[in-house]
Design goal:
Elements: H1 2-20, E1 23-26, H2 33-42, E2 48-56, E3 59-66, E4 71-74, E5 80-84, H3 97-106, E6 112-118, E7 121-126, E8 131-134, E9 140-144
Length: 145
């Protein structure tokens, strides 16, 4: 009887731990089509290290990690949320023209290493350490310190 109770307790405990685990490794092909297309057009699929599916409550997000340490985050539909290339430049195809033009004209010796949406604003982190904020129309708003 005690062994059956202990075994049942272990099953319940393992199920609750599994339910709390929110990150799951998935294959590249399990990404939404828009996310796969963005990766295929801007990165090398061969350099994908792993893909995570992150389920938190009703929210679903995807994260693609590359062998060089870069990572790209997507929402549940496969729309780009954030790209972080460490010390390398974010692929130009992922940066809106207005933002690229602004950075090139104001900071000609810098490039964008991180690009993404944070709350209501888009943010670009430059290799010189500056964090720039843009509105939804990609107009410059301010330097974030």
């Amino acid at each position: 009887m005690k062994k059956n109770l202990f075994a049942a307790l272990l099953v319940v405990l393992s199920m609750s731990i599994t339910a709390c685990a929110k990150d799951q490794v998935i294959t590249f092909n399990q990404l939404p089509d828009d996310a796969k297309a963005l990766i295929e057009s801007s990165f090398s699929v061969d350099s994908v290290s792993f893909v995570l599916l992150d389920r938190e409550g009703v929210s679903t997000e995807y994260e693609v990690r590359f062998m060089d340490g870069s990572k790209v985050e997507f929402d549940s539909k496969g729309a780009l949320k954030k790209v972080d290339c460490g010390v390398r430049a974010v692929p130009v195809a992922l940066i809106p023209d207005a933002v690229r033009s602004y950075v090139a004209s104001r900071f000609p010796n810098a490039f964008i290493t991180e690009w993404g949406k944070d709350d209501r604003r888009w943010k670009a982190e430059l290799n010189n350490g500056l964090d720039l904020e843009f509105n939804s129309k990609y107009d410059f708003v301010r330097i974030d310190d």
